[in-house]
Amino acid sequence: MLLSLLLFAVTLSLLEMYRAKFASSELMTIAGGFVCSLLFLLLLTFIGNYQEASGDRTGWGAVVVAQLVALIVAGTVHRVCITTCFLFSAGLLYEVDKLSGMILARSESKVRRH
CA triplet 95, 28, 86: central angle to 5 degrees? Predict the structure, then answer.
């Protein structure tokens, strides 16, 4: 849980330090959106782990909060980063959901055998 928060803080700091570099060209703007989507993933991981540790279920509220924070950070870099961050985050969220479903199905099949 703390590792994802630490990685979030380091990534956010580096993104803000190199804000001018990420806004310098089209390719770097797309890269800035990708880095912001990684911020989304790290924050979503932290929120999910925190909620599970405190006994709550993680839902769409965590996704919305993490997405809003990532989009606000992307807006500080460049306007196009907002769009690319949203698109990359949607792709990452789809893959995380698919991976979670696979792990849950594998876990349930092990429980049935025993």
Answer: 35
Please give the Cα distance from 86 to 65 (Å, whole number): 13
**Which pairs count as long-range contacts for 18-25, CB under 8 Å and 24+ apart, including other chains?**
19/76, 19/77, 22/77, 22/78, 22/81, 23/77, 23/78, 23/81
33/24 Cα distance (integer angstroms): 13
DSSP classification of residue 25: S
Q: What Cα–Cα distance (Å) separates residue 98 from each residue in 73, 78, 88, 101? A: 26, 30, 15, 5
Q: Which pLDDT tens digits describe the chain residue by residue (114 residues)?
A: 899 999 999 999 999 999 999 999 999 999 999 999 999 999 999 999 999 999 998 889 999 999 999 999 999 999 999 999 999 999 999 999 999 999 988 888 877 766
* Amino acid at position 71, single letter: L
Q: Which amino acid is at 28?
A: M
